C-alpha cells in the first residue's frame, strides 16, 4: 500500500534539514471535541550535539519538546514513528525537491506588489536586500517639518474619500526581489519510479518548514535549529538504509510498512491525547507563539491549583494593566489586603504600549534587557513590568502573610464564575471563593478568515502581536528575514510598521503594510489627516498599500505568497495581523453575565459592577459613562483608570466613572498624538492646525490668523474660509504639513472628543472642555486655549 492511500496522511520534510520528517494523521477523534488535528515532526538540532526533539502539533498548537525531556510514556508511543520516518522521508524527499525546484522558477512576485500607481509620487518600495525598494518622495510629507507659524482649521467628514486619493499612498517598487537559489541538491533520476507517481498527492502537499519559525522563549528549549541540507540527506539515509529505495516497495516490505504506519497512527493518537490535554489550556488562551510553551508541558505557578488558596478576600481574574491597577487601589485603601491574581499568561503584570514603540528603539541600540527596559519620552528609563518579581507573594503563602500583598497564579484560567455564591472555577475544576472579584480579562487579537482558514503551513507564518513573546519573535524575523507584512491600519499595525521600519533601516528586511481602508488610522483620524499620515508612514520606509486586502495566502517554499485584491502578489516571510481586538468574554455565558451586542465586553454600570461584588475593568468592560453614554475602550490609560475605580469600589467606595481616560499613540519619532473622549472618525470634526510658514517671526501672531474650514460629518464637506484671514490656504488637501493641531469631535454641536496632534501636556485642558459638556459658538476660540504655537 502506498502511504498516500492512508487517508489524511501527509508527509513533509524540510530542505534545511532541521525537520527531518513530518507526519500528520489528519483527524483523530478526541473526547470532548469532535476533531483533533494531530501532527508530529522530528527535529535534529546539530548545534546542540544533535539533540533530538519533537514538534507535536495538536489542534493547531505546535509544541516543541526535546527528546530527552519527553515523558517515557510519550516516548514509547512515538518510537515506532521515529523509525518509520526514514522510509517516508526518502520516499517523498526526492519528488518534493523536484517539485519545489520547479516552483521556484516562477515566483518572487514582489516586484509587482507595490509598483507605481502614481507618477507624481514615489513610495518606499526600494531596498538593498533584494526584496523591494521604497524611496521617499522628494517633497511633501518627507521633507523636514518646517517650523509652524500659521494656523488654519477646518471641519471634516469621517468618510474617507475614495480611490482617487489612494494613489497618494501607493508605492513605487523596483523588481528587486532576489531570486533564491535552491540550496539542496537536485533529486536523483531514480526517484522517478512507479511508486513515486502514486505519491503525487502527497508531494503536492509537501511543505517546507523553516527552523526560524520555531519560537524560542525563555520557557522554551530550541528544538528546531537549522541544519545544512547535505546533512539532511545524509542523516536521512543513514537512519533509513534503503530509504530512498524504499519507495519501490516489495509486497513484504509494503506490508511491514503498513503495519508500522498503523502502529504509528495508534501511537500518535495516544501521545497526542496526552499532549493535547496538557497543552489545551495554552491553546484556549490563544498565546500567539510558534511552538507553544517552552517545555512542551505547560508549567503553572504554582505547580497545581491545589496549592492555591481556597478562599481569598480579593480575586483578580486577568494579569494585565487593569487588574494590577485594581490591586494598587485595593492596597492603598486596605493596606493588609490579600489579593490573588489569576492569569493565563506566564509573566508578571506588564504594560503593552512599549511593545509596539519604545522597545523597538531599545532594540535598535541593542539594549533589550531581561525586564524589557525602555526609555520614556521624559528620558527616564523603566521596565515593562509594573513591579519586580520580589514584589509578589507566593500563592501558597498569601493567606499566611500578615501584611497581605498580591500573589499571581500563572498559567491558570477561570472558566466560570458563580456571582451568587462568589465562586470562581478554574479550567481544571478547582474552585476559589471570594469576597470581591474583578474580571479584567482584556482582549485577544482578532484574525481574518484568509489566514484563519489557511493550512497550518501558512498559519505558522502568521502571527498576532500582543506580548513580549510576540516582540521577541518579530525581532528575530526583522533580524534574519527579508520581508515583514503588517495587515491592518489601526494603532498597533501603524505603530508597529513605523517602529519596524526604523529598526530595519540598516537591515535587509522590508516592511509592508496592507489594509483595505484609504489611510492609516482611518477609524480615528479625519480622512485628510489619515491620508497625510499614510504618506508620512511611507516616508519612514514602510511600503504602504491602502485599499488593498489579502485574497489568498499560500505557502511558497519557506515564505508566504499573498495574492492581493489589486491583482498583485507579495512574497513575505511573515504576516503580522493587526486587525483589532476582541474582548475576552468567554466566561460570560457560563457565568450568566451580559455581553454588549454592539460594543462587545461585559456590560457593567457606571460603578463598573456586573453583579454585586463582581466588577469588570479594562478592555473587557462595556461600561456606562454618565457623560458620554455606553462605551468600551481599549487603551492603556482606560485600563489604569477603570482598574483603579473598580479597585476602589471593591473596597466599598461606591464611586461612578467620572474621570475621562486618555490615550496616546506614536508613529515614529515625528508624529505623536493624544486623545480623550469620543475620538471617532465617523463623527464630524473641526480641526485647527498650525500651518508651516517661511517666516518664523510671524509665529507670535499666528493665532489671530486662524481660519476655519467647515465640513459635514459624512459627506465631502464644504469649505468656509475665515473672513479675517482670506489669504490662508484652507483646503486640507493642499496643506503641506499637519505639524501641530487640535481636532474637535462633535456630537449634537458639543465637543465630545479631542485629539491633540503633536501637542503634549494639554490633556487636562481637553478633559475640562469635554466635561463642560456645552455648545461653543466659536471653536477657534476654544482652539486658542491649546496654544498650538507655544
Ligand atoms: C502592542 C500594543 C500596543 C499598545 N499601545 C497602546 C498605546 O500606545 N496607548 C494606549 O492607550 N493603549 C495601547 N495599547 C492598549 C493597551 O495595552 C490595552 O488597552 C491594555 O493592555 C488593556 O489592559 P487590560 O488589563 O484590560 O487587558 P490585558 O492587558 O489584555 O490583560 C488581560 C489579561 O487577562 C488574561 N486572561 C484573559 N482571559 C483569562 C481567563 N479566563 N482567566 C485568566 N486570565 C485571563 C490575559 O492573558 C491577560 O493577562 C496597546 C496594546 C498593544 C497590544
Q: Which features characterize this protein?
A:
8-stranded mixed sheet, alpha/beta, 790 residues, single chain, Enolase-like, domain 1, FAD/NAD(P)-binding domain, 34 strands, binds flavin-adenine dinucleotide, 23% strand
3D architecture notes:
The structure is a single chain. By secondary structure, the protein is of the alpha/beta class. Among the domains are: 305-350 and 386-442 and 584-650, 3-Layer(bba) Sandwich (FAD/NAD(P)-binding domain); 446-582, 3-Layer(bba) Sandwich (FAD/NAD(P)-binding domain), CATH 3.50.50.60; 670-697 and 735-789, Enolase-like, domain 1 (2-Layer Sandwich). Helix content is 26%, strand content 23%. The chain is built from 18 helices and 34 strands. The strands form 8 sheets. Strands 7, 8, 11, 12, 13, 14, 26 and 27 form an 8-stranded mixed sheet that branches. A 6-stranded antiparallel sheet has the order 6-32-33-34-31-30, sandwiched between helices. α1 (72-105) packs across α6, α1 (72-105) packs across α7 and α8 runs parallel beside α16 (636-650). Mean pLDDT is 71; it is low at 1-67, 88-92, 101-109, 115-250, 276-297 and 694-732. Residues 285, 317-323, 342-345, 352-353, 355-356, 413-414, 440-443, 465-466, 492, 584, 587, 618-620, 634-637, 639, 663-665 line the site of flavin-adenine dinucleotide. It comes from Ceratitis capitata (Mediterranean fruit fly). It catalyses: A + NADH + H(+) = AH2 + NAD(+). Residues 175-193, 225-238 have a biased composition (Basic and acidic residues). Residues 100-195, 225-250 are annotated as: Disordered.
Amino acid at each position: 500500500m502506498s502511504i498516500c492511500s492512508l487517508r489524511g496522511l501527509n508527509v513533509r520534510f524540510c530542505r534545511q534539514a532541521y525537520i527531518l520528517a513530518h507526519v500528520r494523521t489528519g483527524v483523530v477523534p478526541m473526547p470532548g471535541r469532535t476533531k483533533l488535528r494531530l501532527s508530529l515532526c522530528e527535529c535534529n538540532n546539530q548545534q546542540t550535539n544533535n539533540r533530538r526533539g519533537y514538534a507535536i502539533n495538536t489542534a493547531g498548537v505546535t509544541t516543541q519538546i526535546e527528546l530527552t525531556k519527553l515523558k517515557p510514556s510519550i516516548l514509547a508511543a512515538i518510537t515506532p514513528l521515529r523509525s518509520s520516518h526514514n522510509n517516508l522521508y526518502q520516499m517523498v524527499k526526492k519528488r518534493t525537491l523536484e517539485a519545489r525546484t520547479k516552483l521556484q522558477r516562477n515566483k518572487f512576485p514582489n516586484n509587482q506588489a507595490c509598483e507605481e500607481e502614481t507618477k507624481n509620487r514615489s513610495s518606499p518600495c526600494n531596498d538593498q536586500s533584494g526584496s523591494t525598494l521604497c524611496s521617499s518622495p522628494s517633497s511633501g510629507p518627507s521633507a523636514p517639518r518646517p517650523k509652524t507659524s500659521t494656523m488654519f482649521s477646518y471641519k471634516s467628514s469621517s468618510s474617507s474619500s475614495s480611490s482617487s486619493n489612494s494613489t497618494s499612498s501607493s508605492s513605487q517598487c523596483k523588481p528587486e526581489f532576489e531570486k533564491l537559489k535552491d540550496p539542496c541538491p537536485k533529486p536523483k533520476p531514480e526517484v522517478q519510479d512507479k511508486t513515486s507517481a502514486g505519491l503525487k498527492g502527497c508531494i503536492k502537499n509537501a511543505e517546507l518548514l523553516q527552523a526560524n519559525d520555531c519560537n524560542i522563549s525563555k520557557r522554551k528549549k530550541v528544538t528546531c535549529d537549522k541544519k545544512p541540507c547535505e546533512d539532511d540527506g545524509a542523516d536521512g539515509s543513514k537512519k533509513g538504509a534503503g530509504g530512498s529505495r524504499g519507495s519501490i516497495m516489495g509486497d513484504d516490505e509494503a506490508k511491514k510498512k503498513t503495519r508500522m504506519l498503523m502502529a504509528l497512527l495508534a501511537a500518535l493518537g495516544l501521545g497526542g491525547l496526552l499532549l493535547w490535554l496538557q497543552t489545551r489550556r495554552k491553546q484556549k488562551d490563544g498565546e500567539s507563539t510558534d511552538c507553544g510553551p517552552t517545555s512542551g508541558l505547560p508549567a503553572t505557578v504554582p505547580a497545581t491549583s491545589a496549592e492555591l488558596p481556597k478562599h481569598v478576600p480579593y480575586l483578580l481574574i486577568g494579569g494585565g494593566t487593569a487588574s494590577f491597577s485594581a490591586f494598587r487601589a485595593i492596597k492603598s485603601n486596605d493596606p493588609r489586603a490579600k489579593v490573588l491574581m489569576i492569569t493565563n499568561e506566564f509573566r508578571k503584570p506588564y504594560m503593552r504600549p512599549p511593545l509596539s514603540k519604545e522597545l523597538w528603539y531599545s532594540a535598535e541600540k541593542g539594549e533589550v534587557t531581561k525586564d524589557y527596559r525602555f526609555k520614556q519620552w521624559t528620558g527616564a528609563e523603566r521596565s515593562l513590568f509594573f513591579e519586580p518579581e520580589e514584589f509578589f507573594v507566593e500563592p501558597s503563602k498569601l493567606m499566611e502573610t500578615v501584611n497581605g500583598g498580591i500573589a499571581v497564579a500563572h498559567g491558570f484560567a477561570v472558566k466560570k464564575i458563580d456571582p451568587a455564591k462568589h465562586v470562581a472555577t478554574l479550567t481544571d475544576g478547582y474552585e476559589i471563593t471570594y469576597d470581591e472579584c474583578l474580571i479584567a480579562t482584556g482582549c485577544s487579537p482578532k484574525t481574518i478568515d484568509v489566514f484563519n482558514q489557511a493550512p497550518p503551513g501558512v498559519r505558522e507564518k502568521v502571527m498576532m502581536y500582543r506580548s513580549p513573546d510576540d516582540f521577541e519573535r518579530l525581532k528575530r524575523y526583522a533580524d534574519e528575514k527579508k520581508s515583514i507584512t503588517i495587515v491592518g491600519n489601526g494603532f498597533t499595525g501603524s505603530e508597529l510598521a513605523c517602529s519596524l521600519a526604523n529598526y530595519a533601516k540598516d537591515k535587509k528586511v522590508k516592511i509592508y503594510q496592507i489594509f483595505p481602508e484609504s489611510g492609516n488610522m482611518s477609524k480615528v483620524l479625519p480622512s485628510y489627516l489619515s491620508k497625510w499620515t499614510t504618506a508620512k508612514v511611507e516616508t519612514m520606509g514602510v511600503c504602504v498599500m491602502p485599499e488593498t486586502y489579502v485574497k489568498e495566502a499560500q505557502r511558497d517554499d519557506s515564505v508566504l505568497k499573498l495574492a492581493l485584491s489589486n491583482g498583485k502578489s507579495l512574497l513575505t516571510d511573515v504576516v503580522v495581523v493587526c486587525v483589532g481586538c476582541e474582548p475576552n468574554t468567554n466566561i460570560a455565558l457560563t457565568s450568566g453575565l451580559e455581553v454588549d451586542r454592539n460594543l462587545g465586553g461585559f456590560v457593567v454600570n457606571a460603578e463598573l459592577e456586573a453583579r454585586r461584588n463582581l466588577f469588570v475593568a479594562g478592555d473587557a468592560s462595556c461600561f456606562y459613562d454618565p457623560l458620554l453614554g455606553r462605551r468600551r475602550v481599549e487603551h492603556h490609560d482606560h485600563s489604569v483608570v477603570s482598574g483603579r475605580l473598580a479597585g476602589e469600589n471593591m473596597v466599598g467606595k461606591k464611586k461612578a466613572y467620572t474621570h475621562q481616560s486618555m490615550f496616546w499613540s506614536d508613529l515614529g519619532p515625528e508624529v505623536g498624538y493624544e486623545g480623550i473622549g469620543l475620538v471617532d472618525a465617523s463623527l464630524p470634526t473641526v480641526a485647527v492646525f498650525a500651518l508651516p510658514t517661511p517666516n518664523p517671526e510671524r509665529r507670535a501672531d499666528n493665532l489671530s490668523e486662524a481660519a476655519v474650514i467647515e465640513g459635514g460629518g459624512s459627506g465631502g464637506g464644504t469649505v468656509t474660509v475665515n473672513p479675517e484671514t482670506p489669504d490662508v490656504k484652507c483646503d486640507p488637501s493642499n496643506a503641506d504639513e499637519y505639524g501641530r493641531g487640535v481636532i474637535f469631535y462633535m456630537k449634537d454641536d458639543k465637543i465630545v472628543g479631542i485629539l491633540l496632534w503633536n501637542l503634549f501636556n494639554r490633556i487636562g485642558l481637553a478633559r475640562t472642555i469635554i466635561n463642560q459638556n456645552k455648545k461653543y459658538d466659536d471653536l477657534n476660540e476654544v482652539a486658542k486655549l491649546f496654544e498650538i504655537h507655544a
